[in-house]
Design brief:
mainly alpha, 4 helices, single chain
Length: about 130
């Protein structure tokens, strides 16, 4: 008897069809990725002419922003550039994330060690690789 309740042959799934659909999906993704790479490396990014209206407008606003920032920094007398504070903040955030990830894995390790009854030799081998 099989799981369908009769003694006949077990029906086969359409495994060939599923493999074919999987291959078609990956082939489609590969074609799209290849098209994007060809577009970037062959044609390149669009280049704005140096004296076009858009370029002149961009540089006008960029220079005005640089002048305004220089005035603000000179009036405040900043000794620490803002990117240094940002660097400290990002480093502390990364350290916090690393510690929390380590604690998370340590808790999972303790739960597995308590719940999964395996011999000590197995745990010593696993701990060597972790």
């Amino acid at each position: 008897m099989n799981s369908y309740g009769n003694a006949g042959p077990v029906p086969q799934d359409h495994w060939l069809l599923s493999i074919g659909l999987f291959a078609v999906k990956w082939l489609l993704h590969a074609i799209v990725a290849l098209a994007v790479l060809v577009r970037i490396f062959v044609f390149g990014e669009p280049v704005t002419r140096p004296h076009s209206d858009n370029a002149v407008l961009f540089w006008r606003h960029r220079n005005q922003a640089d002048e305004d920032l220089a005035k603000v920094r000179a009036s405040e007398g900043n000794t620490i550039p803002p990117y240094t504070i940002l660097l400290y903040h990002c480093s502390l955030w990364d350290l916090n994330f690393t510690c929390r990830t380590f604690q998370h894995y340590k808790v999972i390790w303790m739960i597995l060690k308590i719940c999964v009854p395996l011999n000590a030799r197995f745990w010593n081998v696993v701990q060597f690789f972790c």
